[in-house]
Amino acid sequence: MSTAILTGPPVPGSPLEGDLRSLGFDVRIASGADEAADLLAAVPAAERAALVDPRFVGHLHALRLGLTDPRFPAAAIPGAATARPEARAALLAALRQAAPQSAVQSSPDPASPSPGAAATDTDPAAAGVLPDLVADALAAEGAAPHRPELGTLVATVPGDPQARNEARQAVAAVDDEDVRLRSAVKARDGFFTTFFISPYSRYIARWCARRGLTPNQVTTASLITALIAAAAAATGTRGGFVAAGVLLILSFVLDCTDGQLARYSLQYSTLGAWLDATFDRAKEYAYYAGLALGAARGGDDVWALALGAMVLQTCRHVVDFSFNEANHDATGNTSPTAALSDRLDSVGWTVWVRRMIVLPIGERWAMIAVLTAVTTPRIVFYALLIGCGFAAAYTTAGRVLRSLTRKARRTDRAAQALADLADSGPVADGFAAAFKGFARRLPSLAPPVIAVLGGAAVTLTAWLAPYGSPWTVVAALGYALTSGLAVARPLKGALDWLVPPVFRAAEYGTILILAARADVNGALPAAFGLVAAVAYHHYDTVYRIRGGTGAPPRRLVRAVGGHEGRTLAVALLATLLGAPQFTIALTVLAVAVALVVVAESVRFWVSSGAPAVHDEGEPA
Question: pLDDT band for position 273 (50/70/90)?
Answer without folding.
Answer: confident
